[in-house]
Automatic annotation (TrEMBL):
Top-level taxonomic group: Bacteria
PANTHER family membership: BETA-LACTAMASE, BETA-LACTAMASE-TYPE TRANSPEPTIDASE FOLD CONTAINING PROTEIN
Keywords assigned by UniProt, alphabetized: Hydrolase
GO molecular function, one term: beta-lactamase activity
Ranges where the Beta-lactamase class A catalytic domain occurs: 29-234
Protein name per the record: Serine hydrolase
Organism (species): Priestia megaterium (Bacillus megaterium)
One example of a Gene Ontology biological process annotation: response to antibiotic
Gene3D superfamilies, per the entry: DD-peptidase/beta-lactamase superfamily
Amino acid sequence: MMEKARMKIEDAVTKWKRSNNGLIRIHIEGKESIQVNSFIQQRAASTIKLLLAIEAFRQIDEGILTLTSVIQRTEKNTVGGAGVLRALPRLTHIKVKELLTLMIIVSDNTATNELISLVGFEKINECAKNLGLKKTVLNRYMMDEIAVEKGVDNYTCASDVVKCLREIYEGNLLKKSSREKIMRMLEMQQFQHKLPARIGSAFQAANKTGELQGAEHDSAILMRGNETYYAVVLIDGLSDNEQGRRLIADIGYLLSSNI
């Protein structure tokens, strides 16, 4: 079953720790589970965008929002980091569907901030509670360095991210059509250099990454035939982000080649 994959992954993590610094949290679910410190809270980075997508689509399902609604962009929500909207200042109006798509497939921080303003911090965190997320909270906008300097950040844990993935793929909070829309966005993910990097052609991946200085994360739904696996690897405290990216890619390979 997954015992061989577990042993290979644990061995890879042990070897990695001999020459690298980093706090590693892993939660993988399939026919069995592999967990390493999976309930320990840490910085969420862009994995928090999964929760935002779920709450946005919940509001769409209830008629509070519509995918075709057009919003006017605001200067306060235009930020740096990942994404393309900041490079398109003349694009002053944009549909909710386009914001969601950009937030997922290129992790657009400006699109994310517009969605946070639209959906609301309170509703997003209420959604986290409804999903049974124990360590996940949205406290700030993307790229809010002033908030970070004050010790305000967004947090999650590997097990909570698995719950988000499971909700998207097979949950009951959202309508099936909404879950399928999020899945299509995740399948169009442009950042494939971590968990999906070396999984082989037998698997299809739908993933959402996250990164900050000193942190590298990835979360993926891995599908092979009628088999589905949920894989989340969160690494923080890195002195070299590249080493974190390599370990996550190794874990994706070891999982896919040993199940």
